[in-house]
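Input record (Table S2, row 330):
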Amino acid sequence: MADSIRWGILGAGGIAGTVGPEIAATEGNEVVAVGARDLDRAAALAGRVGAPRPYGSYAELVADPDVDVVYIATTHGQHHDHALLCLQAGKPILVEKAFTLNARQAREVVMQARRRRLFCMEGMWMRLNPLIIKAQEIAASGRIGDVISVHADLSHLFPYDPKHRLYDLAAGGGSLLDLGVYPATFAWLFLGRPDVVQTTGALAPTGADASAAMQWGYADGRFAQVSCSAQGTNPLTGLVAGTKGWISIGKRVHRAPFITVHDDVDGDEEFRQTINGTGFDHEIAEVARCLRAGELESPRAPLDDTVAILEVLDEARAQLGVRYAADAST
Ligand SMILES: NC(=O)c1ccc[n+]([C@@H]2O[C@H](COP(=O)([O-])OP(=O)(O)OC[C@H]3O[C@@H](n4cnc5c(N)ncnc54)[C@H](OP(=O)(O)O)[C@@H]3O)[C@@H](O)[C@H]2O)c1
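Output record (NAP complex):
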């Protein structure tokens, strides 16, 4: 491996245009290649991130011997096939959230990555946010007592457009995979796998979930309210409540600039951080750290969690009546 981690970007759409420059700007990392279905689009992004090699196909990108890791930045419906394409070519991968359409696809990708001993991680960047890690540490320390509930929501208005990735089932559309995966992961960090999931929501005319509200129940009485919507917007917060206090995640739960901790003894304490750029630098640095250390999974983003959270989202989608063609073989 060269001194810097050499990234290839697969797909040259919206998020690639945000994360790509962050990779190029994160010390010890460079983008050396961009592959897209269209060479001009690949070349345009390559120009922005200083990558010398644009490719007009994904096959050429994954065949590039000087790519150390591929960032898969396509739509949910394509992640499974693109992840397998990379792994079969011997490339470690960072796969944008949501990792795949469903848990079955995720298990397949994880199995291939483990069998080939290649690094693999879901791009759940919230997990690498230092303040989210701080919140986990505070909860684990007992400062807020026993955690009894989590409330988390991530909603953002996506005006209805049947061709937009959020509403197009072929692209893996739906608020749960696009937005809900964050509050679901947030609740998971503090409570783990629920025993019961009850879901209500609203479907778009395409059949994709436009909104979803889940109640997670635990046999011991703990609970979580986890919701998301593409039909409105909100402060995007998270709240962890315990027997002796609470932790509030300041707006936006997936890239929190501050958290407030309240306990019955010391009152309120606020922790703040400056977000560098768009805040993806922690995720990029973690991938680079793992690759340098020869770690095949990030302990901050375990693949077993990625699969298990998708199992919960599968159940929620089934309750809403949302099905992808890929669910047929589940
Ligand atoms: N982490 C975050 O904060 C964040 C924010 C937004 C989105 N995302 C995630 O990023 C991913 C992409 O979102 P986006 O907004 O970038 O989407 P997008 O711009 O609509 O599409 C991204 C790329 O997906 C590929 N693609 C689209 N439809 C395809 C199809 N039918 N077959 C094959 N490839 C297809 C295209 O690659 P080519 O360029 O090669 O044609 C396109 O440029 C999703 O997983 C989304 O959840 C993450």
